[in-house]
Every structure is written in C-alpha cells, then in structure tokens.
Recover the amino acids of this structure.
C-alpha cells in the first residue's frame, strides 16, 4: 500500500525520558509504515533546552503559530534535583508554561474510554472534559523570600508615573510572598472558547472558581463568564444544554456524584490538578487526550501525563516496562487528524480514525499495560510490555489496511 502523503507539515516537539522512548516507538511502528510523515522537528530534551538557553522552546511555539498544528512529547520541568542529575547550567522555566504563554488559549482534556475498562468511579458513564485556561496565574508568577520586619506591597505604576499601593502583609518573621496576574483578553478568549466548545459538543458547561475568597481576581473570571453566558444563552437553550457557575469545592462534589457528560472549565492551576483527578477516575493518566486551542486557531496536542521517570530508569537498566502508550498515540492522531482536516486530506483523517480503533481493539481484546489490568473486564486480559502492546496495535492497524 502506498504511504499517505502530507501536503503541509505539523510541528513535532520531542521530549524526555520514557515518554521520549515511546514517542519514537510510535513513530517507527505505527506512523512511518503508513504515512510519508512531514514534520518541523524541535528537540525539547532537557539538555537541548539548557544548551540553547530555552530559545528552542520559544522557537517551537512560534512554529506552531506559523503552521497551525503541533504535537508535543512530555518534557521535564527542571528543579534543583534535575539540575544536578543532568548537569544543567540553570533551572529553566516550564516548557509548557513558555509554550502556553505564547499560544494562549484553552487546554481541553478528555478521557479516552474503552468498552472493557471500568472507571474507578463507576458512576461516570460519560466523559468529563476539563477546559483549562492555559495562560498566567501561578505559572507566570513571581515569588520571593521575605526577611522578618519586611512590609510586602503590591505597587501599580501607571504610564504617567502615578502609583497605587496596597499592603499584602507585614512580616514579623521570615516568610515568602508571590505575585500572579492575568489579562482580560486571555480570560475572554478562555470563556469564549469554552462556550463554543460546549455548543460543538452539545454538552453542559460548568465554570468553578473561589470568588468568595479571592474576590477581585476570581470575580473577574466569574464576571467574564457571565457576560458570555448572556451572549450564548439563546444558543444553549436551542441546543438543549446549560451553563452553571459554582464554587470550586462544590464543583468537586458535583463531579464525583455525577454521571459525567459535562465540560468543566477551570482556571490554570485548578485545571492542572483536576484533569489528573478526572484521568485517574477514568482509569489512568495515560487515558486522557489534551489539546491546547489558541485564539488564532492553532492547535497543540500532547499526552496529559508526564515523562514516566521511574519506568525510564528501569528502561536504562535494560529491564522491560509496561508503560501505557495510548495517550501518546492519541496525541499524534489528534494532531494528524487536525492537519488532515485543514488540508482536506481525507486519507490522513481516515488513518487516524483507524489507528484509534486499532488501539481500542487491542485493549478490548485483553492485552493491557499494568496500569489497566485491575480495571479491565476482558476475560482474556493479560499484562503486556510497552513494546508488545505497540506491536499488537501495529498488527491491528495493518489488518485494517490489507
């Protein structure tokens, strides 16, 4: 069979550790045999980012803006321990934070469901999508150590030099302080994309924050969502869906008790935490799609899990691992499908559909990685290694194209 041609590239962002190992296995065994793959490649390995003073991350983000579609492997966010381990010059910023600051937009994370995988929370019958605002807040914050006897203030200096001050705290002992921010334009883009996505999915939308405590900051988000609710209310009514605002702690309770089938919009940090909770509730962090949709229409796809460090250390010792590759595969299919849709390349779109079905056929047949074994209801279930499950998926996708 002739390989599927691509008329335009997508941006490929390579990563770290076990995620990187799986990334290359997926390309070698699942993609390259069927697609004449065209990518603009950026190696975001931790050492490469350090060598380039992180300019490679910035360049990759602007490449996504240029080409419209990117796919990213999980990357290490450096800390002092990683600086020693990898002999780094400095502790660089989070690559995801850098990319999201440039692209802006909303991260939509949705569980990947299988007939034979029962959620840890059995009430969840339908997918719960987390809509995570991807700009600002704690991820672009500034923090400082504070000595005893210090008065910490917020000082706003207008362009004509006028100052507005408010006291944060008078420190009678040593402590710490942090400042964070966001932009009206980004909050509006977040709200608009959430309402639009809910209409596309014909799914109820809920936004949750803590405006009773963080009054000015969180209330800004609440007011913007109410403004867009006024604009979209009629369309929601026609679609038979609804919008709800509630406090974040109440939202957690509602979600746990629900049957799913809702888009849950969250601020940046809340979305980071709650998407992992939802993914775990459905079975595994490796069963979650993630796509960043920016206001200019750019899409960046990635697996929502990390680099799987402990599995990588075992891999380096020559030991076999049973690491779930599904989210990485679906990151690739999501990006390639979007590329196909933009370029009217139906062969590429159909291939992505077939590869995802091959993944489902493999899991539902009982071949599962260790994280899914207890959740599988297949009568023939067995634990397979990382390479074995990719080989089985490769066999199933090959059968579909014979």
């Amino acid at each position: 069979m002739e390989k599927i041609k691509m008329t335009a590239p997508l941006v490929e962002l390579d990563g770290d550790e076990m995620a990187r190992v799986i990334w290359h296995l997926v390309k070698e065994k699942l993609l390259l045999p069927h697609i004449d793959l065209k990518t603009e490649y950026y190696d975001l390995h931790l050492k490469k980012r350090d060598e380039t003073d992180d300019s490679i991350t910035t360049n990759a983000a602007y490449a996504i803006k240029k080409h419209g579609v990117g796919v990213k492997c999980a990357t290490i966010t450096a800390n002092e321990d990683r600086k020693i381990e990898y002999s780094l010059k400095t502790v660089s910023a989070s690559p995801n934070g850098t990319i999201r600051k440039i692209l802006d937009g909303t991260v939509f994370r949705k569980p990947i469901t299988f007939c034979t995988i029962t959620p840890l929370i059995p009430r969840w019958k339908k997918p719960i999508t987390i809509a995570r605002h991807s700009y600002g807040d704690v991820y672009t914050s500034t923090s400082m150590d504070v000595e005893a006897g210090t008065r910490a203030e917020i000082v706003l200096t207008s362009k004509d030099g006028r100052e507005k001050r408010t006291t944060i705290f008078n420190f009678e002992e040593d402590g710490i302080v942090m400042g964070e921010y966001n932009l009206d334009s980004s909050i509006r883009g977040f709200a608009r994309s959430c309402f639009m996505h809910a209409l596309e999915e014909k799914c109820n939308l809920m936004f949750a924050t803590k405006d009773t405590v963080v009054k000015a900051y969180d209330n800004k988000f609440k007011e913007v969502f109410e403004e867009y609710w006024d604009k979209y209310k009629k369309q929601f009514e026609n679609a038979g869906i609804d919008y709800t605002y509630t406090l974040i702690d109440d939202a957690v309770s509602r979600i746990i008790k629900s049957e799913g089938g809702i888009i849950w919009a969250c601020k940046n940090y809340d979305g980071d935490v709650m998407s992992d909770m939802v993914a775990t509730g459905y079975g595994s962090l490796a069963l979650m799609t993630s796509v960043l949709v920016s206001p200019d229409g750019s899409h960046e796809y990635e697996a929502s899990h990390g680099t799987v460090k402990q599995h990588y250390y075992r891999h380096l010792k020559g030991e076999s691992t049973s690491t779930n590759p599904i989210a990485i595969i679906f990151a690739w299919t999501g990006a390639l499908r979007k590329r196909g849709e933009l370029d009217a390349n139906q062969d590429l779109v159909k291939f992505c559909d077939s590869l995802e079905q091959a993944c489902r056929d493999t899991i539902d047949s009982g071949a599962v990685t260790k994280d899914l074994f207890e959740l599988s209801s297949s009568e023939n279930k067995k634990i397979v290694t990382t390479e074995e499950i990719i080989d089985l998926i490769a066999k199933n996708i090959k059968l579909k194209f014979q």
Summary: The chain is about 45% helix and 20% strand. The longest strand covers residues 163-170.
